Request: fold
Amino acid sequence: MNLYDLAPAQLEQVLGEIVSPPFRVKQIEEWMHVRGAASFEAMTNLPRDVRAALAERFTISFPEVLTRTEPAQDGSQKYLFRLHDGQRIESVYMPMGERTSVCLSSQAGCAVGCTFCVTGFFGPGRNIAPSEMLGQFFTIRSEKQIPADHMNVVFMGMGEPLLNFENLVTTLDVLYRSMSPRRVTVSTSGIIPGIDDLARLERRPNLAVSINAPDRKRREEIMPITAKYPLDELMASLRRFPLEKGRDLTIEYVLLAGYNDAPRDAVALAKLIRGTHAKVNAIPFNPDPNLPEWMKRPGDAAIDRFVDTLVQNGVRVTVRRSKGREIAAACGQLRGKEIAKSRATAGRPLRTASGPASEADSRR
Ligand code: SAH
Ligand code: SF4
Reply:
């Protein structure tokens, strides 16, 4: 058993059966959940025989780092991890002055199938265990020597966190040992039952929701999950989501040139989110060879027009503009390159779908 798959209370219970006195149990829990120890050996204030007894019965292990990209201009770096069964997941390190954000994956693929997303393009992958989510976090935190009180965590990497709910909650419980829930954000494509489950948690992370289109029709085109969880019901679930004082929802909106980036789309978006206490995070589309050709990143002028229109309509908005932020918005692309390479050598065609280019044109 990998002890990093257990929440703090479960861990203490399991350890309590073989370790005494109780303060030793506390010490081990702290070594792991607060300090992120990657081996029993590292727990230097434990007697040798206790460390040996632990190592005999349990493991504590994290996924292995396969590659790190060169730092982008703003210092951001992508990490590719290999899981024990050979699956690959990505994380992103994003230094931002005083604070550092780490973007984590929650699944080794994604079944939601958004058409603008590389992770969606490659299809479903298994749920990842708490140890695999925490491994991304602790590995990057220790490699970059980030003080715990400078960390932000966002679940915006590969996968849909609310479709891996139980493991997500275990992971959150561990993260909260070294950081406040205010510093953690979970991003969802709009899984309504998951949002309601999140609402019932005593300690809630921040909630970000990928809306990406100003109306049901277009949202269904690029996010087929809309057929299952309709946009109006999704908006209703956001209106009832309990927010502590000083907290906001985040609405993510991927900007696709000529498709959803016109000023009238901004007006429609402002109307859609009225009453949700949300700020908008506009994310210029990040192109990739595996994605439909008609999908393009808008030019800077179009992005500015969109953002200005939102502001004029009373919406608070941030744009993810720098290179590093943009690579972060496109998790799955590094793994995608690898899969593409291996498929190319196997002689299988890569592209399976091309988009409604003429339809997109007609919207302008
Ligand atoms: N499954 C969750 C979290 C992972 S996706 C969700 O969908 O919210 C994280 C963010 O990346 C989402 O807002 C998604 O819309 C955005 N994204 C995905 N592919 C992108 C691309 N090619 N360019 C820009 N943003 C993208
Ligand atoms: Fe899955 Fe999010 Fe990508 Fe959609 S955008 S396919 S929900 S990871």
